[in-house]
């Protein structure tokens, strides 16, 4: 496990690394995270966790891609978890899961 870098404090807000100011303009914390409902959001990405092949993993995608994937899963009579697991099993070695999910959504909506 990689050690966490020590935090500095600027204007009573924790800051990591070489940042001069925390990035909280969008209402997030000092690292740019915003809480949306029960999910944390980083720079427009929504992060979801899944159990794939017995291991927990997280995927961060734009909300529009999650909406598309939920629609695809519903149309196929699957849960989102089942769709993500099938995509994980079918992706090429070395291809990031987030990339494979984006490609799936684009292909489905492009009709190919």
What keyword list fits this structure?
112 residues, alpha+beta, Ribbon-helix-helix fold, 2 domains, four-stranded antiparallel beta sheet, two-stranded antiparallel sheet, globular
Can you give a write-up of this model?
This protein is of the alpha+beta class. The protein has 2 domains: 8-40, no CATH class; 44-110, Orthogonal Bundle (Ribbon-helix-helix fold), CATH 1.10.3990.20. Helix content is 34%, strand content 27%. It has helices spanning 63-75, 80-90, 97-110, and strands spanning 8-10, 13-15, 33-36, 39-42, 45-52, 55-62. A 4-stranded antiparallel sheet has the order 3-4-5-6. It has a two-stranded antiparallel sheet with strand order 1-2. Helix 1 (63-75) packs across helix 3 (97-110). It is globular and about 30 Å long. The model is unreliable at 5-26 (pLDDT under 50).
Write the layout of secondary structure elements.
Elements lengths: L7 E3 L2 E3 L17 E4 L2 E4 L2 E8 L2 E8 H13 L4 H11 L6 H14 L2
Antiparallel strand pairs: 1-2, 3-4, 4-5, 5-6
Helix pairs in contact: 1-3
């Amino acid at each position: 496990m990689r050690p966490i870098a020590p935090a500095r404090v600027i204007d009573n807000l924790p800051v990591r690394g070489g940042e001069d100011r925390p990035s909280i303009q969008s209402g997030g914390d000092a690292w740019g995270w915003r809480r949306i409902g029960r999910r944390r959001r980083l720079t427009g990405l929504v992060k979801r966790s899944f159990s794939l092949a017995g291991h927990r993993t997280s995927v961060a995608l734009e909300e529009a891609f999650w909406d598309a994937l939920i629609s695809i899963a519903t149309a196929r009579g699957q849960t989102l978890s089942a769709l993500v697991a099938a995509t994980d099993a079918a992706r090429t070695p070395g291809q990031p899961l987030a990339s494979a999910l984006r490609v799936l959504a684009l292909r489905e909506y492009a009709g190919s």
